[in-house]
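Need a sequence for this fold. Nothing fancy.
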């Protein structure tokens, strides 16, 4: 079998690459073992443009956000499924100091913040907002399992998907491409999530896996809340008083799933957000692929020109992933330069 590109892993990263390559008329084969728990299957999928307590507007945020919205909308159109849910986000201040920081930032550059913020309209006495807050614009959440499922279906229809674990040691590189088992390809892109450096080609990349926990809750007293509530932790309303809550950033990989401390930490965050009573109906945890904060790292192997890397989506994969996938595909197909901040060769060699 001959394809243009082999993609290793069908998480968010591998799926985004597959869509971008297909749109450039490339034939792809995506290989994934279909593990029950992965970062993409557990993630909340939040897009919060103004994340962090310093309220920095990162360079290129507007372009990446617009690109993500457009890409998800087009993908929804071509699959007939909905993944992205635009939703108002109530960003509540954690302290008076945080509120002051916000006011100073907005006063210094009101035009930049206008695109992403407006006055708070959340009004439920059971939500704790002693320091006030603002409404974040342009955000929402992505139903990642729905996106992965629709992508897999789209690939299967094009004979572009195989269940399996691709062992990087079995990949042979040639001058014109790569070979794996009976498959020949022009190139291979590794999008393995937190296992990104368990790979003979990329064992020099410092992947720092980080565990995240999420709880499913029933909070009947908040059934009229339609905002995502964000203040250190977050609550995403799912309708009829059901919520998802999170999250944690743990580094103990010995016992990543179903961990008591992770469960307890999310509960503490929920109690800071609301004094309503609630019941926990589920707890899930998964390992995020983090390299340096939530910065995507990608590029070509330094001595194997047909071998590529795409990883490090961290806790902002839904927002940042589409734009970066497009840049990597343009780099591969059109020799366009990668942004230096994201190129594995300028950062880790
Ligand atoms: C609790 C939690 C909450 C999160 N919340 C958010 C959020 O609100 N917003 C946000 O943007 N992001 C969030 N994230 C992060 C988000 O999940 C990641 O950015 C993104 O999903 C990572 O996708 P990925 O494809 O890089 O990795 P993964 O989802 O880990 O996918 C990697 C895939 O590669 C496969 N694979 C690995 N090795 C091989 C191999 N050798 N052969 C074949 N296949 C292989 C794996 O089985 C897997 O399917 C959260 C994560 C967690 C855990």
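Here you go.
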């Amino acid at each position: 079998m001959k394809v243009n590109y082999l993609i290793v892993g069908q998480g968010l990263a591998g799926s985004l690459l597959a869509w971008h390559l297909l749109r450039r008329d490339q034939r792809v084969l995506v290989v994934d073992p279909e593990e029950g728990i992965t970062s993409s299957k557990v993630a909340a999928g939040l897009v919060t443009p103004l994340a962090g307590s310093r309220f920095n507007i990162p360079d290129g945020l507007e372009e990446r956000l617009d690109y993500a919205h457009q890409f998800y909308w087009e993908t929804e159109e071509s699959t007939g499924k909905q993944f992205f849910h635009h939703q108002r986000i109530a960003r509540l201040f954690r302290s008076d100091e945080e509120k002051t920081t916000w006011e100073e930032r907005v006063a210094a550059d009101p035009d930049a913040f206008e695109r992403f913020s407006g006055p708070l309209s959340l009004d439920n006495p059971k939500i704790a907002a002693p320091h006030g807050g603002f409404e974040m614009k342009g955000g929402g959440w992505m139903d990642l399992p729905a996106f992965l499922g629709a992508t897999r279906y789209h690939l299967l229809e094009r004979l572009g998907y195989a269940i399996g674990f691709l062992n990087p040691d079995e990949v042979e590189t040639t001058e014109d491409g790569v070979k794996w088992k009976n498959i020949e390809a022009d190139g291979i892109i590794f999008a393995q999530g937190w296992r990104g450096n368990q790979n003979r080609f990329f064992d020099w990349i410092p992947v720092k896996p980080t565990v995240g926990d999420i709880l499913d809750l029933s909070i009947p007293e908040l059934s009229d809340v339609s905002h995502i509530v964000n203040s250190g932790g977050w609550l995403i309303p799912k309708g009829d008083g059901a919520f998802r809550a999170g999250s944690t950033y743990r580094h103990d990989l010995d016992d990543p799933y179903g961990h008591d401390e992770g469960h307890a930490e999310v509960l503490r965050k929920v109690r800071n957000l609301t004094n309503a009573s609630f019941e926990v109906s589920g707890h899930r945890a998964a390992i995020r692929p983090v390299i340096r904060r939530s910065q995507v790292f990608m590029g070509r192997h330094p001595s194997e020109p047909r071998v590529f890397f795409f990883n490090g989506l961290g806790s902002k994969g839904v927002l940042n992933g589409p734009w970066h996938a497009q840049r990597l595909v343009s780099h591969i197909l059109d020799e366009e330069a990668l942004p230096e901040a994201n190129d594995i060769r300028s950062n880790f060699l």
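For context: The chain has a mean pLDDT of 96.
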